[in-house]
């Protein structure tokens, strides 16, 4: 089976904002000096049947279903968050290499204190609204304040 028969990365410029210069991640961005990882082994089987129902057992009832604040730090809430929210990157389950999710490219400065991400111009909310860097920053501030 050829994984290239199942592309997961669409045209990188399809949703790019024409007002953003290429060197800042806009249309024509080539990623010089940035990291990315689009060459990884498939996870799961592309022949899997799509749709249907998944059932899971919750062994512990959480004190709250809030995703922030007192008593939110439970394994159930982490599971729910992982099913509901997207992150900038994820780790490949066997190689532990970074893989793109909301960010197509990333750059970690040598001091390991500054991280830069290029948000995928094709990333959209379920209503079709583009995901922006401001959305990511607002979420980060909400979770860390």
Q: What is the first-to-last residue Cα distance?
A: 46 Å
How does CATH name the architecture of the domain at 86-145? Alpha-Beta Complex
Unreliable spans are none
Question: How much of the sequence is in beta strands?
Answer: 5-15%
- As for the CATH topology of the domain at 86-145, it is Dipeptide-binding Protein, domain 1
CATH class of the domain at 86-145: Alpha Beta
Number of strands: 4
**Major sheet size, sense and barrel closure:** 2 strands, antiparallel
Secondary structure class reads alpha+beta
Side-by-side strand order of the widest sheet: 1-2
Oligomer: single chain
Overall 3D shape: globular
* Mean pLDDT over the full residue set: 82
Total of DSSP H or I helical runs spanning 4+ residues: 2
Rg from C-alpha positions?
Answer: 18 Å
């Amino acid at each position: 089976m050829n994984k290239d028969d199942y592309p997961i990365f669409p045209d990188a410029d399809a949703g790019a904002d024409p007002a953003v210069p290429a060197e800042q991640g806009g249309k024509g961005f080539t990623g010089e000096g940035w990291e990315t990882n689009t060459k990884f082994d498939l996870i799961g089987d592309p022949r899997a049947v799509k749709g249907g129902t998944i059932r899971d057992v919750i062994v512990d009832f959480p004190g709250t279903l809030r995703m922030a604040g007192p008593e939110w730090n439970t394994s159930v809430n982490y599971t729910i968050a992982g099913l509901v929210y997207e992150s900038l990157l994820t780790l490949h389950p066997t190689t532990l290499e970074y893989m793109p999710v909301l960010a197509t490219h990333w750059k970690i400065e040598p001091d390991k204190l500054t991280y830069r991400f290029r948000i995928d111009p094709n990333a959209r909310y379920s209503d079709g609204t583009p995901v922006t860097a401001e959305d990511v920053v607002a979420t980060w501030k909400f979770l860390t304040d």
